[in-house]
Specification:
single chain; 324 residues; alpha/beta; 2 domains; five-stranded mixed beta sheet; 28% helix; 24% strand; globular; binds the ligand NCc1[nH]cc(CCC(=O)O)c1CC(=O)O; Porphobilinogen_deaminase_C_sf; transferase; Porphobilinogen_deaminase_C
Length: 324
């Protein structure tokens, strides 16, 4: 893998003296910020690494489906303002929540090693989706998860589920749902792995682009940050998520359509599985790709080929026109 990916200038900059991480205040976001804080502290023992906690619009609007309130950007905007104002140097996000096209002036500077990227089945009374009786209520706000569930289990009732992880678990435990589907990564990070009754296989439960990975966003103009963060980049993860994000970007990158893209390594070959579907699961375009990937360009070319395959199958007809 290319060395040039690891350093923007090739020269070693002075070590940082102080770094501020902007983070949402949910328990998962704080775990992620503390994880990054520990990594930076280990890398730069003389550096004072602080966390600036913030509440975002996405955390405040909890009564509507995510796809209806303006999408993923809602979780990152306030953090970007903190970077612009110089109150923070970096923002850590679940990569899944980072828009496919970065706003002008901001870069996705670093992608850290990926956690388990699978979706997980969580229930107090049932061991698997297959065990759920007719009419059972399954909570998820992801259109991607909803489309697969509707296609495979038309007898289940899929209902929206918003809020942070603890809120969602609380709703399950109060009996509002018989089961809920969540990203395994978040549950594991918060020590809730024991609540997982079943891990859903990538086929057909293909994760969202970037699921399970952490992305670090910085100002493009920050003088040293790319070099400082370079050691935290995980190349296998960076290449995999770059292919996934390319598929998503080509298809409009919104969360208003069920869209899945997930890449895994088989030796030096990256294999990617992706679908675009209707929310009722009745229409689906599926595409797979596999190839030797040794650079960002290779990864993006693989993602592009998969996106073109989906579009050739008529995926565009499943994507609502973006109203902004
Ligand atoms: N859309 C919200 C979101 N963003 C990241 C995660 C989980 C952690 C991850 O995928 O990195 C979740 C919760 C979920 O999908 O259950």
């Amino acid at each position: 893998m290319s060395q040039s990916l690891n350093s923007s200038s090739g020269t070693t900059p002075v070590a940082p003296k102080r770094l501020v991480i902007a983070s949402r205040e949910s328990r998962l976001a704080m775990w992620q910020a503390q994880h990054l804080q520990a990594c930076l502290q280990k890398l730069y023992p003389g550096c004072d690494v602080q966390i600036l906690g913030m509440t975002t619009r996405g955390d405040q609007i909890l009564d509507k489906a995510l796809s209806k309130v303006g999408g993923k950007g809602l979780f990152v905007k306030e953090l970007e303002t903190a970077l612009e104002d110089g109150r923070a140097d970096l923002a850590v996000h679940s990569l899944k929540d980072v828009p496919m096209v970065m706003p002008d002036g901001f870069d996705l500077t670093c992608v850290m090693a990926r956690e388990d990227a699978r979706d997980a089945f969580v229930s107090n009374d049932y061991a698997s989706l297959e065990d759920l009786p007719k009419g059972a209520i399954v909570g998820t706000s992801s259109l991607r998860r909803e489309s697969v569930l509707r296609a495979r289990f038309p007898h289940l009732v899929i209902e929206p589920l918003r809020g942070n992880l603890d809120t969602r678990m609380g709703k399950l435990d109060r009996g509002e749902y018989q089961a809920i589907i969540l990203a395994a990564a978040g549950l594991k990070r918060l020590g809730l792995e024991s609540r997982i009754r079943a891990f859903l296989p990538y086929d057909p439960y293909t994760p969202a682009a970037g699921q399970g990975a952490l992305g670090i966003e910085t100002l493009s103009a920050h003088p040293h940050i790319k070099d400082w963060l370079a050691p935290l980049n995980d190349m296998p993860t960076l290449l995999a998520v770059s292919a996934e994000r390319m598929v998503s970007r080509q298809l409009g990158g919104s969360c208003e359509v069920p869209l899945a893209a997930h890449a895994t390594w088989d030796q030096n070959q990256l294999q990617i599985r992706s679908f675009v579907a209707s929310t009722d699961g009745k229409a689906i375009c599926l595409a797979n790709g596999k190839g030797v990937v040794q650079s960002l360009a290779d990864a993006e070319a693989l993602g592009l080929a998969v996106a073109q395959d989906l579009l050739a199958q008529g995926a565009a007809d499943l994507i609502p026109k973006i109203t902004k």
